[in-house]
Amino acid sequence: MADRPDRTTRPPPRFTRLLRMIVQRPPAHVLAGAIFDEQGRVLIAQRPPGKHLAGGWEFPGGKLEPGEERIEALQRELDEELGITVHSAEPLICYEHHYPDRRVVLDLWLVTKYTGTPQSLEGQPLQWVAVNDLEKAGLLDADKPMIPALQRVEGWALGCKM
Ligand SMILES: Nc1nc2c([nH]c(=O)n2[C@H]2C[C@H](O)[C@@H](COP(=O)(O)OP(=O)(O)OP(=O)(O)O)O2)c(=O)[nH]1
């Protein structure tokens, strides 16, 4: 009779399912915008109930759709969520973050020129926060390492009328 694996060394089924999900599912590529006001504060939005990571604060944006350029996804998401038209933006920082149940590639762009006044079109609470207060703003885990990049461009944002 063939040897059967020892049950005690097999990973529990829930762990196996989670592992399979992480291995098989490609990371979601998420475009997000760093939008500064004239006081050098940056705009963040709270994830609504029922969505992944509900209650956490994030930079406005969403997933890249098939066939879309990154700038197009950013423009579409910020139009849908905030009602603003992005005229120019630059990639600021991009990396992959692993949550327990999914992976995201968070691609944060500095919005250098836009028109319109950001408003919450999807019911998400919004707030303008000084970059130095972002640490205690309840940002999602993937977003926290982005704070130093924002500190580097904060001075630029203050001296630049958008
Ligand atoms: N928009 C945004 N999403 C973020 C940030 N940080 C972070 O971990 N995420 C995660 C949360 C979600 O798992 C994923 C974004 O998904 P989403 O649900 O907002 O995307 P979407 O607007 O395209 O929405 P949907 O079509 O899935 O409803 O990325 C961030 O700063 N901004």
Question: What do these coordinates show?
Answer:
With 162 residues, this protein is an alpha+beta fold. It has one domain (27-158): Nucleoside Triphosphate Pyrophosphohydrolase (Alpha-Beta Complex), CATH 3.90.79.10. Helices cover 23% and strands 31% of the residues. It has three helices and seven strands. The strands form two sheets. The protein has a four-stranded mixed beta sheet, with helices on both faces. Strand 5 and strand 6 form a beta hairpin. The chain is globular. The structure holds 8-OXO-2'-deoxyguanosine-5'-triphosphate. Residues 28, 30, 32, 51-53, 58-59, 61-63, 104, 106, 140, 142-143 line the site of 8-OXO-2'-deoxyguanosine-5'-triphosphate. GO terms for molecular function: 8-oxo-7,8-dihydrodeoxyguanosine triphosphate pyrophosphatase activity; 8-oxo-7,8-dihydroguanosine triphosphate pyrophosphatase activity; 8-oxo-dGDP phosphatase activity; 8-oxo-GDP phosphatase activity; metal ion binding. 8-oxo-dGTP binds at residues 47, 52, 58-61. Residues 26-154 form the Nudix hydrolase domain.
Features:
alpha+beta, globular, single chain, four-stranded mixed β-sheet, 3 helices, 7 strands, three-stranded antiparallel β-sheet, metal-binding, 31% strand, 8-oxo-dGTP diphosphatase, binds 8-OXO-2'-deoxyguanosine-5'-triphosphate, 8-oxo-GDP phosphatase activity, Nucleoside Triphosphate Pyrophosphohydrolase, 162 residues, 8-oxo-dGDP phosphatase activity
Task: Summarize the model shown.
By secondary structure, this protein is of the alpha+beta class. The protein is built from three helices and seven strands.
